[in-house]
Specification:
Structural class: alpha+beta
Largest sheet: 3 strands, antiparallel
Number of domains: 2
Number of strands: 5
Order of helices and strands: EEHHEHHEEHH
Number of helices: 6
Strand order of the largest sheet: 3-5-4
CATH architecture of the largest domain: Orthogonal Bundle
CATH class of the largest domain: Mainly Alpha
Shape: globular
Oligomer: single chain
CATH superfamily of the largest domain: Winged helix-like DNA-binding domain superfamily/Winged helix DNA-binding domain
């Protein structure tokens, strides 16, 4: 594996190559296991993972432009529009034009959506805590710090814009 540092390609050591691949596998397996832990509860509540993610971001951040929702939940624009339309049809969120720029469309929770997420979110967090109970609080904080550093570096290498919230 060759990695560019500045303008100079640098050959990664075999140890780094193996550790990189092991980390990718561990991250993927951890994410799959966490999704398996929360998916049944969300399904009981009539929500998929992406639908829950949209409701959760609006719950914690308030009304947001659809593009900001897309960026926060890490799905494509078309998928965001599809999920927003489904949630809107169920009366859980509403779309509205921006006050300053009518072309900007915001998503926001309805009273029905807020009631649902008020009920679902505490149980969701409980399931996540159960699934992550194998780590101490200190280990969770260390993992969060390391994964944030990894995410920021990887996003910078792809030229992705980084914001204060990242």
């Amino acid at each position: 594996m060759t990695v560019k540092v500045g303008q100079q390609p640098v050959r990664a050591s075999e140890g780094d190559r193996a550790a990189t691949l092991q980390l990718i596998i561990a991250l993927g397996r951890a994410l799959q296991a966490l999704e398996r832990a929360v998916r049944p509860h969300l399904a009981e509540c009539g929500l998929g993972l992406t639908e829950f993610a949209v409701l959760e971001v609006l719950y914690h951040k308030g009304a947001l432009p659809l593009g900001a929702i897309r960026n926060r939940i890490l799905v494509t624009g078309a998928s965001t529009t599809y999920v927003v339309k489904k949630l809107e049809a169920r009366g859980l969120i509403r779309r509205r034009a921006g006050a300053e720029d009518q072309r900007m469309v915001f998503g926001e929770l309805t009273a029905k959506g807020r009631t649902l997420i008020d009920e679902v979110f505490p149980a969701h967090v409980e399931r996540l805590q159960q699934a992550m109970a194998g780590l101490s609080v200190s280990q969770k904080r260390d993992a969060s710090r390391l994964l944030r550093a990894l995410s920021l570096h990887a996003r910078r290498t792809t030229g992705e814009q980084i914001t204060e919230d990242d």
